[in-house]
Amino acid sequence: MSLPVKTLVQAAANSGLRAVSVRHSSQAPKVALLGAAGGIGQPLGLLLKQDPLVAHLALYDVVNTPGVAADLSHIDSNAKVTAHTGPKELYAAVENADVIVIPAGVPRKPGMTRDDLFNTNAGIVRDLAAVIAKASPKALIAIITNPVNSTVPIASEVLKKAGVYDPKRVFGVTTLDVVRSQAFVAELKGHDASKTVVPVVGGHAGITIIPLLSQVTPSTKFSEEEIAKLTPRIQDAGTEVVNAKAGAGSATLSMALAGARFANALVRGIKGQKNVQCAYVASDAVKGVEYFSTPVELGPNGVEKILGVGKVSAFEQKLIDASVPELNKNIAKGVAFVKGN
Ligand code: NAD
Ligand code: LMR
Description:
GO terms for molecular function: L-malate dehydrogenase (NAD+) activity. The structure is a single chain. The protein is about 45% helix and about 15% strand. α2 packs across α10, α5 runs parallel beside α6 and α6 (about 150-160) crosses α11. It has helices at about 1-15, 40-50, 65-75, 90-95, 120-135, 150-160, 175-190, 225-235, 235-245, 255-270, 315-340; strands at about 30-35, 55-60, 80-85, 100, 140-145, 170, 200, 210, 275-280, 290-300, 300-305. It binds nicotinamide-adenine-dinucleotide and (2S)-2-hydroxybutanedioic acid. (2S)-2-hydroxybutanedioic acid (LMR) binds near residues 239 and 241.
């Protein structure tokens, strides 16, 4: 299993925004960005506006959308930009969207966990998902809003309630964990960062973030000491940024890059260009947990194949085992939130 996954992941690394391969089909994808005026939303909008595969970029936020849209619409790329502000304009923003990217919600401040964001962000994701269920039930939904381990189950439960849930179409965006891992490994080992591939599995918080250093491409040897240092650095990288920003928010620029790379991968999949990305999805890859991030093959219907964790080291297996109860707690909290409302 590990070899084909590596090969596919390698192919993925050579695509996406690293080298956008433009093979236009008859489809003209619409991407809706919810939370478009925020710290992530604005640079992510900029990158999506420059993506030659995006035909229509619909920007939605509860404030400031017209200004962001006016600004982006002056860029000489082909994507049409529309602005949608406030709940009354949400339906039009997401209607007929092929891909919906959601960075709407509050970020962490120093001292907070991602789960501390649950009380504010759970309701935001629930309400957005309820409108998506009506206006655009076939869209691929990429959720950035934290806590991702819970917001993906929340959106899924809302779609289930509405009778339109398709587990192949709902994604938690964990691409930033992959991007960081690739940056840190390349720096440590002197690799070309643009050709370094590191799968990251599990979820998107603390111990649930599991870099598979045994599967790095190009094949790379790490000492036990290196693994013992690198693994927690990757797991705590979000906190590193939160602390460095000292109250001004969390990762926005690296997240925008990661979100644009993932959205581009979804669009390429829709256009028939199958590719592999790590993402947190409904999955049977690991026993005893309903959602798990692994490399998945993306295609016209979203998740075409779950590729699983592949061959992992004993150290990585221990991390996977330890992540399961934590993920189950996060997932149950999200499910209970929707069931109780
Ligand atoms: P931000 O506060 O700068 O921006 C959030 C935006 O969401 C604001 O423009 C706000 O108006 C908007 N918003 C609030 N409620 C909304 C609603 N109901 N509908 C639409 N828009 C709404 O925050 P940010 O730095 O952009 O972070 C956004 C989220 O992304 C946070 O939850 C953060 O934790 C998360 N995040 C996730 C990852 C990841 O890897 N998945 C990485 C970084 C940040
Ligand atoms: C990240 O990993 O940077 C994000 O999840 C934001 C955070 O709160 O750390």
